[in-house]
Design a protein that fits this description.
The complex is a heterodimer of chains A (about 110) and B (about 525). Chain A has three helices and no strands. Chain A has about 110 residues and is mainly alpha-helical. In chain A, helix 2 packs antiparallel against helix 3. Chain B is mainly α and about 525 residues long. Chain B has one domain. Helix content of chain B is about 70%, strand content about 0%. Chain B contains 23 helices and four strands. Chain B has a two-stranded antiparallel sheet. In chain B, helix 8 crosses helix 22 and helix 14 runs antiparallel to helix 19. The longest helix of chain B has about 30 residues. Chain B is globular. Chain B starts with a helix and ends with a helix. Classes of the chains: A mainly alpha (about 110), B mainly alpha (about 525). The interface between A and B is medium-sized, with 32 and 26 residues.
């Protein structure tokens, strides 16, 4: 479990970093998207990895905190996903405008 | 029973947010209404900020006003904290916003849609970032601020802005991801994101949690330093600021200060042995930024680029001064922060007036103005050609430029000099701690950066006013002259009321260097229900 999550975060981050260093705007967008997936997984894993433990208390009887997983990072991830989604969409619009104005998809607006 | 004071703390976020949303419902042709609402909101923000400042500064023993969002108990609730530093930054933001909005009446509010809404959302984000006492909430407010700034940097359109905007957005998205990683690590190590509770818990940490927390804080610092424009993380700043429209650039002068503010707040809340957390790195980064900014300043060919480098010089000076981690140095730094932000903002507005006659971007602007003017043919046609050639306008602009240059260089008798003098007195004057290599570096860099600014600004002034390629005949409207005058007046006030101002900054610095009282105010904040119970 830990190994799989760690490897997933690592591979996503490595791919993302490589892609945002590429010269095409589309590659940069995909790179940022991959990086944000990696970051979301990372935030999620910071609440410790638990299997078969619900994050929401059922509200009946005395509560044993050790039977539940931490709901806080999950709430953070949700917010981070929404914000990341919105800003990526905005970036995509700017990318298309840039493509229309310059006729190229190079990040500097010109080849070379 | 009076709960008004505590609700006042959330007003700087709510007012611009609501007004900004309201403005979206009006058609672009309702320009007068939009600008009035926008101005009212910014003026209300100034009123609230000044009211908060008087409450925390002059109002007896209350150090900080704390607002618990949703009335949850103290460390669990997301809290907004207004102390002296927050209130000063809020007031500064409001002054810049009023000036930028008035300036935009001349031409820029017509150059693209939703200018005023974006401005209001920017204000909401900046105010929230200055007030919040919770790290994740800080992230959210900084994202609100950045999302609005993405729209504003593209305001007016054109290839140059889109290219600079593309880079600006990409680097800030990447920085936001680093910010999130930092937040996650801090939560993993400390189990809280409340700044005050984090400060308490950081002192009693052992085992692996300590290094993990430090790593998280360093990641957070990296994200803040990208926003503050520390070398070598600052290469996005100059193209973005110099491409932005005049009033937008004037408003952006506060954005890099948000990063500086966050650094200042976080480093002093974290327990350290002698100096504040990470202060050596911040000092060295600030010094490098100062060198880079000064060299860029004398190398820049256009005045707008020079303005952007002045932002870097200002950031560098601030980081170096705060990195010294001396209370008096922090106080002087705060003085410099206010003075340089006002001056850089006025500089951007003035450059706009001087450069639009010969500016390379003016042809692009003309195209966009045409495109948007079609929609409202017939109304307000007298505004199509902004300004008239005023007699003596060149002389007035020249005097204004000279005064601004004095502030930016740091020559007496204006506030730039007082601020630098305050910093230097604190680190090397009588009663200062033992002078080390840092003092020597800071002193020489402050003086040298002043010299570089002197050379660059003197050359620029001579080329513009005394020996212009083509005679200068600036067209100025009252709405464009007034904000510049207002900013200069604010700078003048800093000089004539230097005593009370220095007292205020010294008190703010003392709060920062002794976080115990801040912690007490935040951790001991009472819920409304508890206050009500106590009263009845």
């Amino acid at each position: 479990m830990e190994l799989v999550i760690a490897a997933a975060i690592g591979i996503l981050t490595a791919s993302g970093v490589w892609l945002i260093l590429r010269p095409r705007t589309y590659q940069v967008v995909i790179g940022l998207a991959l990086l944000s997936y990696a970051v979301n997984l990372f935030i999620f894993s910071m609440g410790r990895l638990r299997v078969n433990a619900p994050p929401v208390l059922d509200g009946s009887g005395p509560v044993d905190p050790s039977a539940y997983t931490d709901p806080f990072p999950q709430a953070l991830v949700l917010t981070a996903i929404v914000i990341g989604f919105a800003t990526t969409a905005l970036f995509l619009v700017v990318l298309i405008v840039s493509r229309g104005l310059t006729g190229t998809d190079h990040v500097d607006g010109k080849e070379g | 029973m009076d709960f008004a004071p505590s609700h006042l703390v959330v007003a700087p976020v709510l007012i611009p947010l609501l007004i900004g949303a309201l403005l979206l419902f009006f058609d672009e042709r309702e320009r007068r209404l939009k600008r009035t609402l926008s101005l009212v909101s910014a003026a209300a923000l100034l009123g609230v900020a000044v009211s908060l400042l008087t409450r925390v500064h002059a109002g007896g023993d209350a150090l900080a006003l704390v607002y618990l969002v949703g009335d949850w108990p103290a460390p669990i609730a997301i809290n907004l904290v207004a102390d002296r530093l927050s209130a000063i930054m809020l007031a500064l933001t409001a002054i810049l916003a009023i000036c930028a909005i008035i300036f935009s009446i001349g031409r820029w509010e017509k150059a693209g849609p939703h200018f005023h809404s974006l401005m209001q959302f920017l204000l909401a984000g900046v105010s929230g970032a200055f007030l919040t006492g919770d790290l994740f909430n800080l992230f959210v407010f900084i994202e609100v601020m950045l999302a609005a700034s993405y729209g504003l940097v593209l305001h007016g359109g054109g290839q140059g802005r889109v290219r600079a905007g593309l880079h600006y957005i990409a680097i800030n998205l990447a920085a936001s991801l680093i910010f999130l990683v930092g937040i996650a690590m801090i939560f993993g190590a400390a189990g809280t994101l409340n700044m005050a509770e984090l400060s308490v818990r950081a002192g009693e940490m052992d085992g692996f949690a300590g290094p993990a927390l430090a790593t998280g804080l360093a990641m957070l610092g990296l994200a803040f330093l990208v926003k503050a424009g520390m070398w070598p993380l600052c290469h996005w700043l100059v193209p973005a600021y110099s491409a932005a429209a005049g009033p937008v650039a004037a408003m952006f002068a506060i954005l890099s200060k948000v990063g500086v503010y966050a650094i200042l707040r976080m480093t002093h809340l974290m327990p350290g042995e002698e100096a504040a957390f990470g202060s050596t790195v911040i000092f060295l980064g600030g010094a490098a930024t100062l060198i880079f900014g000064s060299i860029g300043l004398i190398a820049s060919q256009s005045m707008k680029r020079a303005g952007a480098y002045l932002v870097l010089v200002s950031s560098g000076t601030l980081l170096a001064a705060f990195g010294m981690s001396v209370e008096g140095g922090t106080a002087g730094g705060l003085f410099y922060l206010v003075s340089s932000t006002l001056a850089v903002s006025a500089f951007f507005l003035m450059v706009e007036l001087l450069e639009r006659e010969q500016g390379a971007g003016s042809d692009v602007l003309a195209v966009t103005l045409e495109a948007y003017a079609e929609a409202e043919a017939g109304e307000e046609s007298e505004e199509a050609d902004p300004g008239v050639v005023m007699p003596g306008a060149v002389a007035a602009l020249g005097i204004g430029f000279g005064l601004l240059a004095l502030v930016l260089i740091g020559l007496p008798p204006l506030s730039g000099f007082l601020a630098k003098f305050a910093i230097l007195t604190a680190v090397m004057g009588p009663g200062s701690p033992a002078a080390g290599w840092e003092t020597a570096v800071l002193a020489s860099l402050l003086v040298l950066s002043g010299l570089f600014a002197l050379v660059a600004l003197a050359r620029m002034g001579i080329r513009t006013f005394w020996a212009p390629v083509e005679p200068l005949a600036p067209r100025i409207t009252l709405s464009e002259a007034a904000p510049i005058c207002a900013l200069m007046l604010a700078l003048g006030l800093l000089v004539f009321q230097a005593g009370p101002a220095v007292d205020l900054f010294a008190a703010a610095a003392a709060d920062l260097h002794d976080p115990a009282r801040y912690l007490e105010a935040v951790m001991g904040a009472e819920r409304v229900a508890e206050i009500r119970d106590a009263d009845t």
